[in-house]
Specification:
The protein is of the alpha/beta class. The protein has 14 helices and 13 strands. 41% of the residues lie in helices and 13% in strands.
Length: 447
């Protein structure tokens, strides 16, 4: 089977798709990848053929200004959120759609697999079903599906427990709809009209779940707020970590079990300012001789970490996660969805601090599920970090909840679930194939 993976130009979105691509290639499937040129090497590294975006979508997400860059302790404003989402996810839709059509002419895929915020698939999903391959979307972030308490997504709100909260959430939802979601939907629908499809009536973030032929959520039900969700949503656990992506550090032998290991990272995107989380964590735990603090710069330079480096700290630009996670007793993170789920799959409790992108909602789930403490800030103080780390390490309930979560991950056959879903869709693709190839030129879906 020929499978096309299409990704938003960000490593946090692409990496899960590449992991799925590796699984499918090992099963004998042919895989190609569509994304920005700066990600060509990562796609070709797994043995997949690379297809580049047209210029309107060919950018580096790392160069788009971060939200709340001047408000270190605050969540970004609605205007900041809308502007960033418009730039990264909505404005490139026409070019992404063009890239899909051009690629499918050269690589007639039987299934498309894209990340959950690759809105370039929506024009196809809004068009005739028989004239396109099946589309699988991957939940690389929290499940952004409507909630019965009306809480807006990405606002970091726990499920409402009172009438007062329900009223507050409804008011917030109206504000977010007015300032963020309706303007984004209007922008998308203008593009869709030019492409001859639509209009879309659902909010953008709901629509990808509602319209996809199958949706693979990269987590477990226990890390998601309970609510009615479409039957096409499949929780598939944590994807396997690609081994040997970085060499072992020279200090690897020091992780011998004599001290508890605290791993701290700001991920690969929000690592432009290590004073937000890594530096205060090093300062917080500098006088804790029973702890070994391991900081990974997510590909950045460790020389950029400000302040003195304490004697119990060990630094690396990259670390092989398949090696470090089994040795980790606590994970301090700003809340990247993928790394949080990987940590939970190993039964590691967490301390989180981050409010930008989807992090407020990821970290709220950490607290809600009981696997850790959410400090609910972009820039925690050393004092708050020290107290949270000690609480998580010393109170058994956090480790117990993390262990229960790990058991939930262990119960899911991730590879088997992926192959099951793809197998079902390949039958559908075969049934529609002749009709689709005979009709696409007439209707313009492939140019």
């Amino acid at each position: 089977m020929r499978i096309l993976i299409a990704s938003t130009p960000a490593t946090g979105h692409l990496n899960p798709l590449l992991a799925i691509g590796r699984i499918l290639m090992a099963e004998g499937h042919e895989v190609a990848g569509l994304s920005a040129n700066w990600l060509r090497g990562r796609i070709e590294e797994i043995g997949a053929e690379f297809y580049p975006f047209p210029p309107g979508a060919d950018f580096d997400v790392r160069e788009v200004p971060m939200e709340a860059s001047t408000a270190r302790h605050l969540a970004p404003t609605p205007a900041q959120v809308r502007a960033r989402r418009e730039r990264i996810f909505v404005a490139p839709v026409a070019a992404q759609h063009e890239g899909l059509q051009r690629t499918l002419r050269e690589f007639p895929a039987e299934v498309i697999i894209a990340d959950d915020l690759f809105f370039g698939v929506l024009p196809m999903l809004l068009g005739p079903r028989a004239l396109r391959p099946p589309v699988v979307l991957c939940g690389t972030s929290i499940l952004h599906w409507r909630r019965p308490d009306q809480a807006p997504i990405f606002a970091g709100l726990h499920p409402a427990t009172s009438t007062v909260q329900l009223e507050e959430y409804a008011a917030l939802a109206e504000e977010h709809d007015r300032l963020i979601h309706r303007p984004l939907l209007q922008s998308f629908n203008r593009i869709a009209k030019e492409l001859g499809v639509g209009p879309l009536t659902l909010p953008l973030f709901d629509s990808v779940i509602a319209l996809a032929d199958a949706y693979l959520q990269l987590s477990v039900p226990g890390f998601e707020y309970p609510r009615d969700i479409p039957s096409t949503v499949n929780f598939i656990g944590a994807l396997p970590i690609v081994p040997n992506q970085a060499p072992l550090p020279g200090w690897a032998h020091e992780l011998d079990g004599s001290r508890k290991v605290v791993l701290v990272t700001q991920g690969t995107l929000a690592n432009h300012d290590f004073s937000l989380l890594i530096a205060p964590t090093l300062a917080a735990l500098a006088d804790e001789p029973d702890l070994l603090v391991v900081a990974t710069a997510g590909g950045g330079s460790v020389e950029d970490i400000p302040g003195p480096i304490p004697g119990n700290a060990r630094l690396a630009s990259y670390l092989p996660f398949e090696w470090i996670l089994p040795k980790t007793d606590l994970f301090v993170t700003n809340g990247g969805y993928g790394s949080v789920n990987q940590a939970m799959s190993y039964g590691i409790p967490l301390v989180t601090a981050g409010l930008t992108q989807d992090k407020a909602d990821v970290n709220a789930r950490v607290a809600w599920s009981g696997v850790g403490i959410d400090l609910a800030t972009n820039a925690p103080s050393p004092e708050a970090l020290r107290a949270a780390v000690r609480a998580v390490l010393e109170q058994p309930r956090y480790l117990a909840r993390a262990a229960a979560m790990a058991a939930e991950f262990e119960a899911i056959d991730t590879q088997g679930e992926i192959l099951r879903v793809l197998g079902q869709l390949s039958n559908l693709s075969a049934a529609n194939g002749v009709r689709r190839r005979d009709s696409v030129v007439e209707l313009g879906f492939f140019g």
